[in-house]
Inverse folding.
């Protein structure tokens, strides 16, 4: 995305709260979406992603807060007058219509002429690489093709904002990965502003310019996929991104930073501001942080673990290890086939100081 786009706020959400049956589902959520941006709402089931999306779509009213589109308030504008497109997992195609009729459906409702609608359907079929499928019946299509048609249908009326709620949730992983790449290309090619809801961090990383991680109705952290992955702000964020090596320690040296843990001292590359020697802290060691230690190299952070479990995953080997304190379990992804040890054997690993993230001292409980 160009920087230019980033500066043009398109949708602004301010202080939105929503309760169902006196249970707060969204708590004072404020968020900006830039024009042309693909924003992903990510979070565990029940954190309020869909409710926020439905409020943006106008399908649900907030109890408090406002929504602005290009500076104009839309909080109380009904859904059908917002010109937003929806692609929901359960927003299925009309089974009794052909592919072409499905794609043209929203166009007819908006008063497009038949000729314009026909031309637009062709454009969309080309975009989703389904030329020639216009007269096919929906039931003749594979799951992936149906999702392409659903995307074409939601894009056809040129929505100002496209909203996708777990659109690929029903598909298997391989097909989902393939369609994610295509979807991302299509949205970028069109410069389409989009909000994508998912609970799957890999999906979020693959599709989003910016990820908004939600927790219990609040925004926990937001940033580019790379920034969130490299700097998870809280233990919750780290855990949600699949990082399980979350430990506590005590800062024993500031320059260079060294943390004492229950199983030894660890050099870390960076510390957040404001920590003092003696402070207790929480940190995460990323799964790709470790590699086999070479006896001939003078490496730091070399620890000898006991292998508990090893599982070959192709590009990497997943290992679960017991730390030298005999109680801390850590998991790493070691490159390729670099570990062939058996359970019970000792494995010396060097942990990259740059792959240890220390959280702010004020961080919330994990
Ligand atoms: P999921 O991924 O499971 O859809 P989510 O993050 O999208 O989760 P929401 O669907 O927004 O979460 O739901 C948040 C909470 O609000 C849940 O506890 C849900 O049960 C509740 N909720 C959502 N819609 C309603 C409703 N119409 N009436 C009552 N409770 C609701």
């Amino acid at each position: 995305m160009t920087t230019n786009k980033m500066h043009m706020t398109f949708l602004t959400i301010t202080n939105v709260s929503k309760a169902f049956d006196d249970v707060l589902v969204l708590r004072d959520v404020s968020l900006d979406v830039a024009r042309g941006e693909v924003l992903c709402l990510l979070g565990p089931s029940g954190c309020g992603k869909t409710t926020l999306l439905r409020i943006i779509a106008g399908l649900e009213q907030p109890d408090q807060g406002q929504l602005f589109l290009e500076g104009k308030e839309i909080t109380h504008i009904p859904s059908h007058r917002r010109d937003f497109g929806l692609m929901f997992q359960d927003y299925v195609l009309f089974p009794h219509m052909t592919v072409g009729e499905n794609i043209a459906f929203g166009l007819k409702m908006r008063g497009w002429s038949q000729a314009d609608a026909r031309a637009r359907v062709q454009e969309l079929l080309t975009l989703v690489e389904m030329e020639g499928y216009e007269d096919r019946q929906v039931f003749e299509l594979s799951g992936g093709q149906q999702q392409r048609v659903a995307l074409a249908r939601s894009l056809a009326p040129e929505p100002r904002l496209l909203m996708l709620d777990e659109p690929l949730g029903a598909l298997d992983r391989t097909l989902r990965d393939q369609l994610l790449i295509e979807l991302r290309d299509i949205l970028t090619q069109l410069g389409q502003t989009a909000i994508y809801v998912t609970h799957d961090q890999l999906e979020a990383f693959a599709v989003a310019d910016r990820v908004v991680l939600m927790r219990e109705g609040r925004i926990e952290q937001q940033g580019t996929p790379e920034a969130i992955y490299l700097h998870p702000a809280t233990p919750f964020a780290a855990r949600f991104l699949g990082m399980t090596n979350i430990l506590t320690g005590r800062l024993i040296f500031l320059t260079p930073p060294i943390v004492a843990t229950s199983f030894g001292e660890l050099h870390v590359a960076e510390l957040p501001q404001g920590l003092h020697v003696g402070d207790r802290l929480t940190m995460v060691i990323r799964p790709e942080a470790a590699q086999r230690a070479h006896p001939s190299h003078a490496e730091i952070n070399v620890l000898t673990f006991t292998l508990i479990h090893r599982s070959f995953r192709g590009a990497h080997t997943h290992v679960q290890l017991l730390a030298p304190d005999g109680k801390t379990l850590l998991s790493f992804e070691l490159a390729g086939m670099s570990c062939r040890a058996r359970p019970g054997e000792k494995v010396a690993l060097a942990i990259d100081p740059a792959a240890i993230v220390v959280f702010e001292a004020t961080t919330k409980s994990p």
